[in-house]
Amino acid sequence: MALDTTQTHDGVLREKPEPFWLDPKKRAIFFQILVVGAVALLAWYLISNTVANLQRQKIATGFGFLGKEASFEIGESVIAYDASNTYARALVVGALNTIKVSFIGIVITVFLGTFIGIARLSSNWLISRLAAIYIEGMQDVPVLLQLFFWYAIFYETLPSPRQALKPMHGVFLCNRGLVMPVPEWHPAYGYVFLAFAAACLMVWGLRRWARKRQDETGKTFPVFRVSLALVLGLPLGVWAALGAPFAMSVPELRGFNFRGGTTWSPEFMALLLGLILYTAAFVAEAVRAGIQSVSKGQREAAMALGLRPAQVLRLVILPQALRVIIPPLTSQMLNLTKNSSLAVAIGYPDFVSVANTTINQTGQSIEGVALIMLVYLIFSLSTSAFMNWYNKKVKLVER
Amino acid sequence: MSEQVHVVKPPVTSVGVVGWLRQNLFNTPFNSLLSLVTLYFLWSVLPPFVRWAFIDASWFSPSQVCRDGAGACWSVITQNIRFILFGFYPYDQQWRPAVAVVLLLGLLFFSRDRKYWSKRLGYAWIVGLVAMGVLMAGGVPGLPAVETTKWGGLPLTLLLSVFGLTAAYPLGVILALGRQSKMPAIKVLSVVYIEMIRGVPLISLLFMASIIFPLFLPEGITINKILRAQVAIILFTGAYIAEVVRGGLQAIPKGQYEAAESLGLNYYLTMRLVILPQALKIVIPPTVGILVSAFKDTSLVVIIALYDVLKTTQTVLSNPEWMGFSREAYIFLAILYFLGCFSMSHYSRKLEMELSTENH
């Protein structure tokens, strides 16, 4: 503005070419160079300091340490591991533990969250109030505090194995964790799994065929019932044909500990419980919002078309509600995975915990933290890739 | 028209307590069953809990009395309240953080009402924050200096939250504007920053702040640990706020930008006077969601061994005298955090209603 007036004083009105700082394009280029330069300068400053510090402290950089012997034990592992294995294998064990707790956690959270979300909308005053209290209460307490609480319940309040609580036959709850029976391995299970996979494949084909036939002839096919029969019937049939093995490995108290069955350690249980109960509150909110987003008229219109209640739910309500529910649900799953990194605080050997031990032993802090970030970035980026794919898919359905 | 209008009262079963019960708890067979099951569940859980938490509880006793009693041991809180709230701050100086906390809560209380929003409140905040800093750090006549390594407990939690939130908010707005910018370099930098930070857990940033950050600085310069954790929290929260604000920016119709441009406003004025006031208003609810989770996330500094209120509580619990009363201590902390988060979300709902221009 000030420049304009000086120009009028000179009597030159907009005839001279504009000086470069008044041209938005040139100004934008100048501004970008300035910002990029500042960021580059800052990065250079930090890196040069780091290099100097590392040289002074004689810390070797690089990922060579991954091949060395880890020489620390890990409490629980999905794959075989002992202290003589390499750091790389230790980190893989940690990553698998992260995946294990996240996977089990996500599955249970989705069910529990959906259940609570529906309960929140119940016409039963008592149920909907209780669900509301649960949601508000759980959302407002830090998940780390909840983890500590559950861990304390396990090692302080629960009895020793000898006096273990027995909520069900063969299931024990004590300060060593949750002990429960598992089916003993039998080769038949391999075939049952194969049958299940085959059934899934057949269902996929069946759905395509049924949709195509409906598009062409208008005839409907009871896809859901046939699919259910296939998915349940085929594996069960194979199981029965192979002699129906049902031997279970039931835990028994021997001396001071349990034999047989499988044990979920207190650390794992505390982490799982804390993550599930915390995240379920957020999932419940997402589910509630999704169901409420489908207007009443939709249900009425579907019923006016003569659809049966199950069809109304499957063809009209769910597709619309899921479009609202899935994005926040996915981000909650991701949050659960990221929050599982708090395992380090209660001593469950997840990836962050193992990486932390590695950093403490080798002093390779930059590489360790970089690995942590990389692993979680891979989780997040693959999740957002899925989200983009899903958003594209539901958009097509909308059109 | 008949003379006598006979008023028929609604049947007893559809009004009053009975009517309410019938309508809300026993309207269908399924609901009746559900209600009965729930009532039975509450009946079997609540009385024992009340008994444990209130009737049999010991409130101000030494730990031995607790161990003999059957109820909750709230004494673990009351007997150690000074350490839980103030950590290793010198015992005889603990009135200082107490005054600072009261000052902060008072300022927050006054800022709650939009009537008081003025320049004077802004000055009051500046004066208040300086006073709090002086009170905490000392070093002036009458107040001996207290090193930051001794800060702990509730003041530290509040310090990390309040400064974290106030600094992260502008950072988030700038990043959101950067992401929406037409300049490619600015846009790419913002996107990379936001996605990187949102993709990793806070704990990795805290590790970075506590172990890697010292390597970034030239020899001889150190920054204290609290400040480093604070920076990590700000950088982390900023990225999340940026995404929320971006949602608001995208919801503003194009006509608003064009109208501002046709009025001759430049970029800065367009944003400050036209776009941001509308965009930030739309995103109040999700922003408060972010602020609430940032407040909860300050508890993660426990992992890098800063003595926030969670860590001081754990320190008390690791004392053999008070070992084994974790439940009570953690329930107390849960109530503390719940009050903080609940008042924030409650306030946001109020503010949202006040700012709404649609209904009146």
UniProtKB/TrEMBL annotation, chain A:
Q: Where in the cell is it found?
A: Cell inner membrane; Cell membrane
ABC transmembrane type-1 domain: residues covered: 95-387
Spell out the molecular function terms from Gene Ontology: transmembrane transporter activity
Q: Give the chief site where it resides.
A: membrane
Matching entries from PROSITE patterns are given as: ABC_TM1
Instruction: Give the record's keywords alphabetically.
Output: Amino-acid transport, Cell membrane, Membrane, Transmembrane, Transmembrane helix, Transport
Q: Which residues cross the membrane?
A: 28-47, 101-119, 188-206, 226-248, 268-291, 369-390
User: Record keywords: Cell membrane included?
Assistant: yes
Which GO terms fall under biological process for this protein?
amino acid transport
Q: A cellular component term (GO) from this record?
A: ATP-binding cassette (ABC) transporter complex
* Residues making up the signal peptide according to the UniProt record: none
How does the protein's chain sit in the membrane according to the entry?
A: Multi-pass membrane protein
Q: Which residues form a coiled coil?
A: none
Q: Which PANTHER family match?
A: AMINO-ACID ABC TRANSPORTER PERMEASE PROTEIN YHDX-RELATED, MEMBRANE COMPONENT OF AMINO ACID ABC TRANSPORTER
Question: Would you identify the family this protein belongs to, as annotated?
Answer: Belongs to the binding-protein-dependent transport system permease family. HisMQ subfamily.
Please report the name of this protein according to its UniProt entry: General L-amino acid transport system permease protein
* Organism of provenance: Desulfacinum hydrothermale DSM 13146
Automatic annotation (TrEMBL), chain B:
Q: Which GO terms describe its biological process?
A: amino acid transport
Gene3D superfamilies from the xrefs?
MetI-like
Its record classes its membrane topology as:
Multi-pass membrane protein
Looking at the record's lineage, which domain of life comes first?
Bacteria
Keyword Nuclease carried by entry: no
Q: Where in the cell is it found?
A: Cell inner membrane; Cell membrane
Cellular component per GO, a single term = ATP-binding cassette (ABC) transporter complex
Q: What is its main location?
A: membrane
Q: Where is the ABC transmembrane type-1 domain?
A: 154-348
| UniProt-listed Pfam families | BPD_transp_1 (PF00528)
Recorded GO molecular functions are: transmembrane transporter activity
Keywords attached to this Swiss-Prot or TrEMBL record, sorted alphabetically, are: Cell membrane, Membrane, Transmembrane, Transmembrane helix, Transport
Transmembrane domains' residue ranges: 30-50, 95-111, 123-144, 156-178, 199-217, 229-245, 265-284, 330-348
The record, for PANTHER family, names: INNER MEMBRANE AMINO-ACID ABC TRANSPORTER PERMEASE PROTEIN YHDY, MEMBRANE COMPONENT OF AMINO ACID ABC TRANSPORTER
Family, according to the entry, reads as follows:
Belongs to the binding-protein-dependent transport system permease family. HisMQ subfamily.
What protein name applies here?
General L-amino acid transport system permease protein
This protein's species is Desulfacinum hydrothermale DSM 13146
- Taxonomic placement: Bacteria, Pseudomonadati, Thermodesulfobacteriota, Syntrophobacteria, Syntrophobacterales
